[in-house]
TrEMBL record:
<dbReference type="InterPro" id="IPR014729">
    <property type="entry name" value="Rossmann-like_a/b/a_fold"/>
</dbReference>
<feature type="domain" description="UspA">
    <location>
        <begin position="12"/>
        <end position="152"/>
    </location>
</feature>
<dbReference type="Pfam" id="PF00582">
    <property type="entry name" value="Usp"/>
</dbReference>
<protein>
    <recommendedName>
        <fullName>UspA domain-containing protein</fullName>
    </recommendedName>
</protein>
<dbReference type="InterPro" id="IPR006016">
    <property type="entry name" value="UspA"/>
</dbReference>
Amino acid sequence: MNNNSSINTDVFKNILVTYVKPTNKETAFNMGLAMAKTNHSKLSVIEFSQDESPQFVFFKTKKDKTKADKHKAKILNLLKKFEAKAHEENISLKTSFKSTESLVDSIVEYVDSNKIDLLIVDHPHLSNSEQQHFNDVVSAIHEEVKCNVLTLK
């Protein structure tokens, strides 16, 4: 009997790693990289940054813009590091940074439009004040996406 005929090695052809909070942890990326290597998959890493309310309700101050620019530069440097590591492993990697008002809607839209088979979400360890919000975000992602979801803690 040929056991290989019943094994589907193309389970996860498109893997997305995303973060619900900028934690700069490589755990989710490393898991995605290992799974992409095992399954000969395409890997995407997208940092979705939720737009923060400006200091003044109607417009962003210079301080708000500077803070956002520093955050974006930090994330882009991290994504370049991921690209280099994936290149070393000979894995196809697509990286992106997107600012959004709704993390859940943006993630669901990306998963649907790019036919993602596996979504890897890094669930951050946060203070009590932030914990409930991000628990709600992760729960909503699990409910709304139409693919397998792996949440790392």
